[in-house]
Amino acid sequence: MKLLDEWYIKMIRWRRNHIDRQTFIILLAIGVGLLAGLAAVLLKTLITTVADYVTIFPRYLLFLIPLVGIILVSALKQYFFKEGSEYTGIGNLLQSISKHSAYIHPSLMYSRLITAGLTMGFGGSAGIESTIVVTGSSLGSNVSRFFRMQNKYRTLMIACGAAAGIAALFNAPIAGVIFALEVVLPAFSTTLFIPILIASASGALFAHVFLEGEFIFNVAEVADFQLVELPFIIVLGLTCGLVSLYFTYLSFSMGSWLNKIKFWLWRAIIGGVLLGLVLSVLPLFYGEGYLSINQMLNGETKSLLLGTPWDTSIDNSWKWMLFFAGLVILKPIASNLTILSGGDGGNFAPSFITGGYLGYLFYLLASNLFPEITLSPVNYILIGMAGVLSGVMHAPLMAIFIIAEVSGSYALFIPLMIISALSYFIKYHYEKVPIFLAGRGQYSLAQFHHESLPLNQMRVSELVETEFEHIPVESTLKELLPKIAKSKRNIFPVLTKEQELAGIVLLDDIRGIMFDNAKQETPIIDIMHNPPAMIEYTENMSDVMRKFDETEAWNLPVSDQGIYKGFLSKSRIFNAYRRELSESRLLE
Fold first, then answer.
1. Which residue has the higher pLDDT, 19 or 246?
2. Which 8-state DSSP code applies to residue 444?
3. Which string of DSSP letters, residue by residue, matches 165-181?
4. Where are the domains of the chain?
5. Is 561 left (phi over 0), alpha (psi -120 to 50) or beta?
6. Are 156 and 192 in contact (CB under 8 A)?
7. CA-based radius of gyration for the chain
8. 227-455 fold
9. Of 74, 97, 153, 159, which has the fewest Cβ atoms less than 10 A away?
10. Is residue 456 a contact partner of residue 540, using CB atoms and an 8 Å limit?
11. Class of the CATH-defined domain 459-579
């Protein structure tokens, strides 16, 4: 082990001496991008392999397959991947950046691939995008930690991993970059853009080679946007915002309900049984659900009815509209049952797919009400997908570019801009918290970044001040006076023999008696008082500032497991915060 440590230290030194920082960041971005692309390939392979095995069972047993998958995944998280089991998606990723110095547990480099692969392979109705984002981000965090990079560069590598994961899944490198800059990182700069762009391209290229062009969507020809369709686009955009709101509130309420079931096995059984019931009626929800969108994009809409009770009974447009309205309502329920009962996955794909169903529903409605206008179903499926994704994920730019890239056309750019903006603002007006920040305080995405990230990049251990004259608890006022004479501070910590803080003495506490000879033998214990609050050495800065606000103090003592370490001043935090805020805007 000692030999390995020596080799590791020599490697780190060699890198610092022979590869400049900017070059190394580019090389690391390429490496993280390729690893994230590999993760995407492995995940899709695992899902396909598992699905091939479990779907050989008789149809009447398919009802039980999602239940088995959720129980299996819940057990794995409970007994084998417990350390990362609470890491549910993008919200945890942002918390790792803002509150944990961009540290992501190493087990997440592989555990989410296994649990999400099993969930979707056994028919869970969720998405793999958040899994790849978390896996790619964990790779970025841990690779940069291996090379002993600073917090700000770990944050950059997390963004590189997230961008490469999205790019690899959708063959959409620009959308991957936009996702990283819009959701993961707090600010934009060229310094950030170049490594993320390179990582995203690397991930997309790796997936393109190993998946042999087998990407999620096969989009038929996109029609040109007609100005006469503008009113339809506006109405659909507003509707997408309302559906996004429904999706988000449903997730909040179902999460609250299922979390009341404390025992993981009961929660898995109840959620799995309910999911099985939904899938037995609507087998098109089985797995990720992108197959149904591809069928719609290629004019094979009747294929959606296979295995449903309405296989032959839907024979006119109004019945189709009722069918798709049901899909819009039930798809979020199926995905939330999968995720919240113990399965693994995210809401990216479900919101995307729900938007596709909504877009086709709107196309049917508009075509029947205005038969004289020729409308393209492909166009409305695609812009509906962008609209709901924009609202649910609070990522309008990513929604625009991901549709533009997967469709291979920028003909829909104007309607995509309109619908994504309208959906986002409708959703944001009623609910400022994106779905992945549920339960993490009433933060909008911008607030989460700009208020939390610069502050929590700072460490108490780096800001603690130690130049305070301390005095033993058994001392008297007479013994304190020489320390006052040479101290530049007006606070004097009182310590026990074990170096624990017994109390503090302020200069104001003794100003009236320090020159009174009759008071010289007054025990310090009679003068000292408790500090208004204590700060722990490992405490995050958001909690530290909350203590300063509650106590209205300007200096608070710091301890490490009870041992006195020094004091933290509010003014020093403010100075460091301004410095961190500047660095977070441009990571140089």
1. 246
2. -
3. HHHHHHT-HHHHHHHII
4. 2-210, 227-455, 459-579
5. left
6. yes
7. 29
8. Clc chloride channel (1.10.3080)
9. 153
10. yes
11. alpha beta
> 2-210 with 227-455: one CATH topology?
yes
Per-residue pLDDT tens over the stretch 327-345: 999 999 999 999 989 888 8
* Helices and strands in the chain, H and E counts: 25, 6
Closest by Cα among 23, 284, 31, 258 to 157: 31
pLDDT of residue 555: 87
* CA dist list (Å): 485 to 94, 479, 492: 48, 11, 12
The dihedrals phi and psi of 523, each to the nearest 5 degrees, come to -65, 140
CB atoms within 10 A of CB 455: 21
Residue 71 scores a pLDDT above 80: yes
**Answer CATH for 2-210 from 1.10.3080.10, 3.70.10.10, 1.20.5.440, 2.40.420.20:** 1.10.3080.10
Distance CA 587, CA 4 (A): 32
pLDDT at 519: 82
Rounded Cα–Cα distance for residues 137 and 140 (Å): 5
Residue % of the chain over a pLDDT of 90:
30
User: pTM of whole model > 0.85?
Assistant: no
**Do residues 426 and 242 lie in contact, with contact meaning Cβ atoms separated by under 8 Å?**
yes
In three-state secondary structure terms, 182 is helix
Mean pLDDT value of segment 374-380: 91
Give the max Cα distance, the chain.
Answer: 104
What DSSP string describes 419-430? Answer: HHHHHHHHHHHH
Residue 440: pLDDT above 50? no
Is residue 152 scored above 70 in pLDDT? yes
- Inter-residue contact 571 to 548 (CB < 8 Å): no
Residue 19 CA to chain centroid, in angstroms? 32
Of the listed ranges 311-315, 428-432, 463-467, 584-588, the one predicted with least confidence: 584-588
If we measure between CA atoms, which residue out of 261, 263, 316, 208 comes closest to residue 75?
263
Sheet holding 471-472, edge to edge: 471-472, 491-495, 501-506
